[in-house]
Amino acid sequence: MAARRFNHNWAVFLDRDGTVTEEVGYVNHLSRLNLIPGAAEGIRLLNDVGVPVILATNQAGVARGYFDEHLVKAALEKLGSMLGALGARLDAVYYCPHHPAAGEPPYRADCDCRKPKPGMLLRGAKEFGLDLSRSYVIGDKISDVYFAKAGGAKGILVTTGYGLGELAHQRAGWRCEPHAIVPDVYAASRWIFEKEGL
To answer: Which residues have C-beta within 8 Å of that of residue 24, sequence separation ≥ 6?
Structure first.
C-alpha cells in the first residue's frame, strides 16, 4: 500500500454505508453489502489520476455486540473485490469498532477514531503524507462533514443513503454547510475534478 506512487499529496476519504454501499442499517451479513450505482466509477476516476482513496467508516455494531470484527473485515474484503471487478480500488481502509456508551471494553471507548472525531483523517495524513487542508471527505451524513471540518478537510454531502433526508429535515440544525451537495460518489468525484482542474 505505502509503496504505491501517487500524483497528489491530498486524498479523498469516503464513508462506506450510504455512500459507497447501500444503507441497510447494520451490515450483519455479507449478503446485505451492495454497491451504490456510480460509486465504483467515481472511485476509478480518482484512481486513474493518482489520488489516494481512503475508506473511513464507523462500525459501532461491533461495540453493540451485533457482530464481531471478523465480519467487518470480511465485508471490507468483499467491498474490495466488488470494486476491483469494476476497475476501482481503495488505497486504505480504516474503521472504528468503538462506541463511547455501548458494549464492553475494549470496544466501549471514547476513542479518537470514531467520526466525527478526526482520528482516521490524521491516520491517513500520517501514513500517506497528506495535506488535509487540500483533502476531501465524501459522506451521506452531516456528521461526515463535521468529520472533515475536524481534520481541516473539505466535506461533500451525497444524497444517497441518509443524505437526502438529512438535507430535507435537519439542515436548519447543521453546525456548518458542506462544500458541496451532490447526488452520489460519481458526481462528487466530478466536482472534485472541476475544483482541482484535473
So the answer is: 17, 32
pTM for the whole thing? 0.95
CATH number of the domain that 25 lies in?
Answer: 3.40.50.1000
Residue with cell 468529520: 147
Task: Say if 23 falls within a structural domain.
Answer: yes
Does residue 36 belong to any structural domain of this protein?
yes
Residues catalogued as catalytic:
15, 17
Percentage of residues of the chain with pLDDT beyond 70: 98
Q: Kindly state the helix (H) or strand (E) to which residue 58 belongs, with its residue range.
A: strand 53-58
Q: What are residue 180's DSSP bridge partners?
A: 156
Q: Tell me what pLDDT residue 97 has.
A: 92
Give whole-number Cα distances, 126 to 3, 9, 91, 123, 190, in Å: 14, 11, 14, 5, 26
125 has a pLDDT exceeding 80: yes
Domain count, the chain: 1
The residue behind cell 447494520 is 26
